[in-house]
Design goal:
With 170 residues, this protein is mostly helical. It is 78% helix and 0% strand.
Length: 170
């Protein structure tokens, strides 16, 4: 029974993560209720799998690394650019992802998410260039970070859970 709950929490988390990415693309917001749901599903998953993928300490460290690194970047960038450069929803999302992924895989998610964000930004700049025949001002190019981080979380999750659900059946 616990295996089914673990699998359902993983499927639910993928659905919530997809919703978060879509909502962020449309509104530049990551709703707290969905981020909290993602967080809770991570705790439920690890409880049901007897903490095989991340111990409670790893979950706490992952959350601290995920949210702490983005909060630090936000703090410094906001001071430099004198405006909000990264939303608190992104900080909370990566904290929740840290619960899912632990300290090692949250670093992978942050890196892959940042790379996905760069690719997203370059694709947007190319689209603007194709329409206007001039490059956008990259200092003022705005795009949501959530979809890139969602991609990074998905990549890191796939690597972390490559043996799931086989490990539950053994």
């Amino acid at each position: 029974m616990l295996e089914i709950i673990a699998l359902l929490s993983l499927i639910g988390a993928l659905i919530v993560l997809s919703l978060l990415a879509i909502i962020d693309l449309k509104t530049y917001l990551l709703p707290n209720k969905l981020v909290f749901t993602f967080f809770c599903l991570g705790i439920l998953f690890h409880l049901c799998t007897d903490f095989n993928n991340a111990s409670p300490i790893d979950m706490a460290l992952g959350a601290l690394i995920g949210s702490g690194s983005l909060y630090s970047i936000r703090f410094i960038a906001n001071r430099i650019y004198k405006t909000d450069t990264l939303g608190l929803g992104d900080v909370k999302l990566m904290g929740a992802a840290g619960v899912w992924l632990g300290p090692y895989f949250i670093l992978m998610a942050l890196t892959a998410g940042a790379l996905a964000g760069i690719i997203h930004g370059l694709a947007l700049a190319i689209l603007i260039w194709l329409k206007t025949k001039s490059w956008p001002n990259f200092n003022h190019l705005s795009l949501p970070a959530g979809p890139g981080f969602a991609a990074g979380i998905l990549i890191a999750s796939c690597i972390m859970l490559k043996n799931f659900p086989k490990e539950l059946l053994s």
